Amino acid sequence: GGTGPTSFDCSGLVTYVHQQVGIATPRTAAEQFAAAKPVKLSGLEPGDLLFFRTSGKRVSHVAIYAGEGRFVHAPQTGRPVELRTLDDEFYAPRLVGAGRLF
């Protein structure tokens, strides 16, 4: 996976952003999910993490909530970082929770 700054995978993007502000962060999406303090979707704040199951039973994808129903994520190593909405056709049904590491 990519840990930046020129190439990211999803958890690498989260790790990189958190490092920039001095927050220690586990490396994988599943580890970040396990370490995060749960947050209700109704209480999301910018910087909170969104966790998804895109394949299988484990959390396999993570994004950073940007506010106003939007999130930033690295969809795949080598692809550009994207801004999506919480009602995204692909990601919305795969969202399994939110959490905070700060």
Give an account of the 3D structure.
This protein is an alpha+beta fold and 102 residues long. The protein is built from 2 helices and 6 strands. Strands 1-6-2-3-4-5 form a 6-stranded antiparallel beta sheet, covered by helices on one side. The longest helix is centred in the N-terminal third of the chain and has 11 residues, at 10-20. The model has no long low-confidence stretch (mean pLDDT 93).
Counting DSSP E segments of at least 2 residues, the number of strands comes to 6
Structural class: alpha+beta
Count of DSSP-assigned helices: 2
The overall average pLDDT, rounded, is: 93
Q: Percent of residues in beta strands? A: 25-35%
Q: How are the strands of the biggest sheet laid out side by side?
A: 1-6-2-3-4-5
Element order: H for helix, E for strand: HHEEEEEE
Biggest beta sheet attributes: 6 strands, antiparallel
Helix content: 10-25%
Distance between the first and last residues' Cα: 24 Å
Are there runs of 5+ residues with pLDDT below 50, and where? none
For the structure shown, list the relevant keywords.
alpha+beta; 6-stranded antiparallel sheet; globular; 27% strand; 102 residues
Task: Give a short summary of the structure.
With 102 residues, the chain is α+β, with helices and mostly antiparallel strands. The chain contains 2 helices and 6 strands; from the N terminus they run ααββββββ. A 6-stranded antiparallel sheet has the order 1-6-2-3-4-5, with helices on one face.
